[in-house]
Every structure is written in C-alpha cells, then in structure tokens.
Amino acid sequence: MPNPDLLTYRYNGHMVYVTPAKSYEQGIEFAQSVFPELASIEPEHISICVNGCVQRQRTLIRIGPMAWASVVPTLARYEVLEVIIKNPEIVVDSVDPADADGLPNYEDVKEKTGSSDFLAPSRGPSPHKKFIPLPEMQRIAEKNAARSRSPSPATSRPSSASSSSISDWAKSLFGKKAE
Question: Where is the stretch described as Disordered (predicted)?
Fold first, then answer.
C-alpha cells in the first residue's frame, strides 16, 4: 500500500485536507495551522487520533509520537484523523492586569441572582456520542424510508430492493456488508 498523499484532520466538527506530516510534531503544527483556534494551545495538549474498532466498538486511538512514522504510511488516502485537546488548561489572559480588579466576585453574583443553589449542578444530560448497533440503524433507516414513501399498497411492504439499498448504505458507513 503506497503512502497516502492526503489525510483529513477533523476538529470541532470541521474537516480539512492536509498532506501527511513527516513527524508527530509536524502533524501537531499542521493541526495548529489549519485550525487557528488551536494556535494558542500548547502542543503537548494536542493529540491526533485514528478511528478504530476495539472489541467491535468504534473508538479513538491516540497516535503516540514514537508510532507516527509506522502508523501514517498504513493509513488510507483521505483517512480522517481526529484532533483532540487533552487536559486543557483554562487561562485568563488580560491585556491590562487592572482589568481583573473589575470582575465581580462570587458573593456579588450570588446576591444579584438571589439564588440559594447558585452552584447547583446542571440537570441536563452530558453530551456524549452514542453507539448505535447496525440492526438498530437498519430499523431507523427503514422507518424513515417508510415515512418518505407515498401510502400505496405496492410500497407498504419492504422489498428486496429496499433491503439491499439499506445493506449498501450500511456497507458505505462501516465498510462491510450487513449481516
């Protein structure tokens, strides 16, 4: 397999084609140059990961600096590499240190809100990625396809063409035929 001439970096929902970096450090530099919001992040807090499958579960596998030269040549052309921030530090940067004196303190904010549970935890669900098994995805696809069809007796039953198109769709997502 020849070395890929293009890879895809993905960060924060955006994707950019890049040429493969010769080293891990250069890969991080490429990420910082194509995603300007990463420019102020220390390189040791940026990781590059490949999507993989471990025990039949899709997961991100971080590429270590010492493995870069071995991993990159095995990647497919346009392979998507995830750029992630690990252990981000929160930094308050102020042009004028006197500006920090004007920030409200906790007691001032608490009094203005009049809330006794000012620091109560959020009740909303945490954002997360959900793994949807292939049979469930097929069921959802069939349900959506049934909704888009006009109600006629000929289209109310799933046909073999319909199930083969679902298999083709699943194959395009996962790279293998649905079982």
Answer: 102-179
Q: How far is CA 21 from the centre of its chain?
A: 21
Q: Given this model, what pLDDT does residue 61 score?
A: 93
Cα–Cα dist 7/60, whole Å: 16
Domain boundaries, the chain: 7-85
Q: What is the DSSP letter of 117?
A: T
What does the alpha-carbon distance between residue 8 and residue 47 come to, in Å, rounded to a whole number?
Answer: 14
Give the span between the Cα atoms of 16 and 31, in whole angstroms: 9
Please enumerate in sequence order all residues whose Cβ is within 8 A of that of 27, keeping only pairs 6 or more positions apart, or say none: 21, 48, 63, 68
Q: Which residue has the tokens 């039949």?
A: 56
Question: Is the model more confident about 54 or about 179?
Answer: 54
Closest CA to 82 of 29, 141, 7, 165: 7
Domain 7-85 adopts which CATH fold?
Ubiquitin-like (UB roll) (3.10.20)
Measure the CA–CA gap between 88 and 174, rounded to whole angstroms.
32
Question: Is the full-model pTM beyond 0.85?
Answer: no
- What's the pLDDT tens digit per position in 122-142? 444 445 545 555 666 667 777
